[in-house]
Automatic annotation (TrEMBL):
<protein>
    <recommendedName>
        <fullName>Single domain-containing protein</fullName>
    </recommendedName>
</protein>
<dbReference type="InterPro" id="IPR029277">
    <property type="entry name" value="SVWC_dom"/>
</dbReference>
<keyword id="KW-0964">Secreted</keyword>
<feature type="domain" description="Single">
    <location>
        <begin position="37"/>
        <end position="108"/>
    </location>
</feature>
<keyword id="KW-0732">Signal</keyword>
<dbReference type="Pfam" id="PF15430">
    <property type="entry name" value="SVWC"/>
</dbReference>
<dbReference type="GO" id="GO:0005576">
    <property type="term" value="C:extracellular region"/>
</dbReference>
<feature type="signal peptide">
    <location>
        <begin position="1"/>
        <end position="21"/>
    </location>
</feature>
Amino acid sequence: MFVFKAVLIIFIFEYLTQTQALNALNYYGDSAYPGRCVVDMSSSVVLMNLGESVKLDSLPCTQIFCMGDGWGMLQTCDYVPPPNDCRYTAFKHWDAEYPRCCKRHIVCD
């Protein structure tokens, strides 16, 4: 079982790092909940198992994907500069699932 879990974590990590996003591997473990990712959302605590994710409402288009044993991948939208003389404005789909929520309106002067 351990080998299967390790291979699955490596596969998930490889998949996530191939996407167009800024990723950061972090430890979200808590000894009170062994093997799970624990995220304090200020109004509640989210407990996740391997393969589950939660979108952070406090940050635009950011999610935590649980990779198991308390390890999770924080994912945010990749920054791609807008065309010359243009700027980003609001997110097009603020409430959409990650990464669809990354799309933004562009205004050109």
